[in-house]
Amino acid sequence: MDSDFDTTLPLPTLDHAARPRVQAALDAKTKPLGALGRLESLAVQLAVALGTGQPALHAPQLVVFAADHGIAARGISAYPAEVTRQMVLNFLTGGAAVSVLARQHGLALTVADCGVAAEFEAHPMLARLKVAGVERGTADASRGPAMSEAQCRTAIVQGRRLVAALPGNVLLLGEMGIGNTSAAALLMARLTGAPLQVCTGRGTGLDDAGLAAKRAVLAEALEANAQATRPLQALAALGGLEIATMVGAVQQAAAGGRVIVVDGFITTAAVAVAAALQPGVLAHCVFAHRSQETGHTHWLQHLGVQALLDLDLRLGEGSGAALVWPLLESACRVLAEMASFATAGVSQRTP
Question: What pLDDT, on the 0 to 100 scale, is given for residue 3?
Answer without folding.
Answer: 57
